[in-house]
Design brief:
CATH architecture of chain A: Alpha-Beta Barrel
Distance between the termini of chain A: 21 Å
Pathway (chains A, B): Pyrimidine metabolism; UMP biosynthesis via de novo pathway; UMP from orotate: step 2/2
Oligomer: homodimer
Largest interface: A-B, 60 and 60 residues
Structural class of chain A: alpha/beta
Family (chains A, B): Belongs to the OMP decarboxylase family. Type 2 subfamily.
EC number (chains A, B): 4.1.1.23
Strand content of chain A: 15-25%
Pfam family, one (chains A, B): OMPdecase
CATH topology of chain A: TIM Barrel
Protein name (chains A, B): Orotidine-5'-phosphate decarboxylase
């Protein structure tokens, strides 16, 4: 999916919402837990109920891998079920030496039909390039994450810059604003103005709104650019909005609230 | 597997060799490529031919994920086939926010029966802790990697220390010498003496010997401690020693050479 196609979706739906399918078999409603294809069935109902109000789905690979083969199968079915209009992100946080990263790129861009994958920067350029070589796909590099552990390394200073700033500056040169995005946590609102200065044209994938407590209003104000430039992800606050039989309806209501708020900022 | 059990294997076999099963369907011998279970069949023959001379196998998850469901199934069969005496490493380079890392730990320590997993440090302590909470398993954190990209961030200085040094010092406090190892690339021999000073009691997983060109002699001299403290991984130089029907025999010969050399250093 090109940037133009993505932003057309955003402006036609007045939404820059991404829904995170962190589907945990122990957290889905009881009436679905004994379903022979529980994870996919849950995802299918969530997608049907929310697709009109969001532009992207993010599959958190960990939750599928935890179930082994059955989980990998549910991931495959889910990515194939997501409408072609929606931007499909593998939240996989991969990254390894070049010949290995090339295999991960194959796994998520060819074997599975994702539009984008999240990757970790620690191992440097040759660990990221194999993803960027798929120029019709998107590589989403960890910049400044939403978790407490961001302070351990990402927010450590080297000279007068944080490690995450070095990562943004260095990695900007590896790809373009048409195939490289950054993960910036919504809980890091104080840094957003600075981050936008460092990377004025890149899209950000912003997790941390919802359960983690980031402010949609604040990050939208600080990070939005002419063609939007942000995808805000909500996972648990949407998919576990209810643990009863009404889970999909409740998810839809929450998603509509996000979409309405987003329409004000766009 | 405890440290004592691992080191008993090392001293009884006089080997600290780990074999990397980076099994690529396009690189295995032609006569196996049409086998209905080609990846597992290749791995099975490699394991049978090499198990007496090594103490560990490392499965590079990327190569299995690239094949989708079939690949995940081959990984499952392979890890179950590796003898219980051998230390089973998932080379997965995972790491995410806490509730997600907990799912990765479940995937590789419970659903699959690995003894260890490699993880990436960028996101900090809460991204690593869920792995370390499995106290009967091992977490192997990226320290200084073998690839060229190590210079981009790992070898960048913050004050008077490199990022990788900060990672080693900080992360040492998260686990113990009984459940935490570090990945240190063999191509970084200049740094090994310093690394051993920083982390005197930890085991290292050392890739980069073989195709990547690191010296077994040099890293053994600089990093070995009383109970060995290093696992040296070789992947491509072993498993692709021949691309004919004699691939397993040739792999066995190469592995015996490594074991003989290792017996001199132990």
């Amino acid at each position: 999916m090109t940037r133009k196609q993505l932003t057309e979706q955003i402006f036609s739906k007045k939404s820059y919402l991404c829904i995170g399918l962190d589907t945990d078999i122990t957290k889905i409603p009881k009436h679905l837990q004994s379903h022979p294809d529980a994870i996919f069935e849950f995802n299918r109902q969530i997608i049907d109920a929310t697709k009109d109000y969001c532009v992207s789905y993010k599959i958190n690979t960990a939750f599928y891998e935890a179930l082994g083969l059955k989980g990998w199968e549910a991931m495959e079915k889910t990515v194939n079920y997501i409408p072609a209009t929606h931007f499909k992100i593998a939240d996989a946080k991969r990254g390894d030496i070049g010949n290995t990263s090339a295999q991960y790129a194959k796994a998520f861009f060819e074997t599975l039909n994702f539009d984008a994958i999240t990757v970790a920067p620690y191992m440097g350029e040759d660990s990221i390039k194999p993803f960027l070589e798929h120029t019709d796909k998107w590589t989403i590099l960890l910049g400044l994450t939403s978790n407490a552990g961001a302070k351990d390394f990402e927010l450590q200073k080297s000279g007068d810059e944080y490690l995450y700033e070095k990562v943004l500056k260095t990695a900007s040169g590896w790809g373009t604003t048409d195939n490289l995005m950054f993960v910036i946590g919504a809980t890091q609102a104080d840094e957003f103005t600075n981050i936008r200065k460092l990377t004025p044209g890149h899209f950000y994938l912003v997790p941390g709104v919802g359960t983690q407590g980031g402010s949609l209003k604040e990050i939208s104000k600080k990070a939005m650019i002419d063609d939007c430039g942000i995808l805000v992800n909500v996972s648990r606050a949407v998919i576990y909005a209810s643990n009863g039989e009404d889970f999909a309806d409740e998810a839809s209501l929450i998603v509509q609230q996000y979409q309405e708020e987003m329409s004000l900022y766009l």
